[in-house]
Structures are given as structure tokens and as C-alpha cells.
Write a structure and sequence with these properties.
It is built from 2 helices and 7 strands; from the N terminus they run αβββββαββ. It is of the alpha+beta class.
């Protein structure tokens, strides 16, 4: 996938979303998504980075645990051929649930010229 395809996949989830954080400094009303590439986990061969692999984090924030929304997000990830790990936490200070997905994405060069 290209980084643009990853962004389009996130946008297709039909929730307010932003890379890392919303920049307008206004509180977001849940549900919403923040996503980012946390680190690389490249495939290395012959003393060089052979394949660019990015660790993608998708964080869903909700007022209550929304299993149907989880299922919808997981359907999008599955359709994209991604494997994920999921963890849910309740953030007491914000009174909000965070469901975090972590996936490894093989990043390909953009075909735009």
C-alpha cells in the first residue's frame, strides 16, 4: 500500500480522523480516529533496507465500548489485507474509551508522477 492508500482507507471508515492529532485545538466529539505511523519494522537483507514496513497505529475514541464500530473498522482492515492487534483502554481522566489497532503495512512507492 502507498501512504495515500492508507490515508484513504482510514477516511473510508466515515469517522472524523486526523494524522496523530486534530490541529484546530477544538475538542473532538467521539467517536473519532487518530492514526499515525509509529515506527518502521523494515525487512533488512544484505546490509540494506530491502522492504519498507511501517507500523500503523489506529486509535478509535468512543464514549462507550462500541462493538459494532469495532467490527466495522476490522472489516475495513481485513478488506485491505491487514493483520492487526487490538487493545482497549478506558481513559479515566477523559471519560473515554480508546481502542488501539496496530498493523504492519508494506509501504510501496506512490504511482503518482
Amino acid at each position: 500500500m502507498t501512504r495515500e492508500e492508507v490515508a484513504n482507507m482510514i477516511t473510508s471508515m466515515n469517522l472524523p480522523c486526523a494524522y496523530n492529532e486534530f490541529n484546530d485545538n477544538t475538542p473532538q466529539e467521539p467517536p473519532f480516529i487518530c492514526w499515525f505511523f509509529a515506527r518502521s519494522d523494515d525487512f533488512i537483507a544484505d546490509n540494506q533496507n530491502f522492504q519498507n514496513i511501517e507500523v500503523l497505529n489506529i486509535e478509535l475514541y468512543t464514549k462507550y465500548k462500541d462493538f459494532e464500530l469495532d467490527d466495522a473498522i476490522e472489516a475495513v482492515l481485513q478488506a485491505a489485507g491487514l493483520v492487526w492487534y487490538k487493545e482497549t483502554n478506558y481513559i479515566e481522566t477523559e471519560k473515554i474509551f480508546q481502542t488501539a489497532y496496530e498493523c504492519e503495512v508494506v509501504i510501496t512507492a506512490s504511482t503518482d508522477t
